[in-house]
Amino acid sequence: MRWDGGERGGNIEDRRGLGPVATGGVGIGGLVLAAIGYFVFGISPQDTLQAVSDAGQGQQVQQQAGARGTPADRDAQFVDVIEQSTTDVWSQIFQRNGQTYHRTRGVVLYDQATGTGCGLGQTAMGPFYCPQDQKVYLDLSFWKELSGRFGAQGEAARAYVIAHEIGHHVQQLTGQTDRADRLGSHGATSGSVRLELQADCFAGVWAAHASEASGGQVSLDPKDVEDGLRAASAVGDDTLQREAQGRVVPDSFTHGTSAQRMRWFRTGVESGDPNACDTFSADQL
Predict the structure, then answer these.
(1) N or C end of the chain: smaller count of CB under 10 Å?
(2) pLDDT mean across residues, the chain
């Protein structure tokens, strides 16, 4: 994957080394619930943390602000370039539709745990987007998990993950998140599954336009697309459930099967059209 010459937008908040900042309310029990919910049952971290926060009866989680800008290490610079690339792509798409794209309020890099607008985020949850503060949260140790546990190697697989989370931001801006909420959060055809598959498709749309939007400085070749597909497959509900509990429970799906995630990512890549990503109107996911 080509990205070294890509523009760095500086929309990164680096909280690495600041450590956990919980003051009560969510606590370690909430972190464990979120981790178990994501890896075993496929429950979104946002849903789990919100439920735990509600149970805390209003107790707050402090957030320590990190340094903003472009970090010096290569892994963080990669995240910065991809975030800027998604901003360029979606800005152009929105503009063609007579709209203005408002980028995320930042990608927060952290380790161990950090406060978010959705509660206390933790490494074991993997990357996630918090609609309450419109930020993406990422512990870079997830890259080892992605390649080691899930077998999704290469920078394109990492870029897919980032573009998927940015896809959730696009959904927040366009009202798709509210649309999903009305359809429920669990089950093979639930609003949650449709939302996640649409985010996969939006990641594919980004991949289709990345080179054009960056003047060729950020681009994916066919092998890179296959790496992205491999990453999508690795985090399907059926694959994760089979690995964690030895059986598949479609009624608890929140993200879609491996085959579905691959299919919708490919749809985005091949069409380059967000309108082709209307998972909410699709009869068959």
Answers:
(1) C
(2) 84
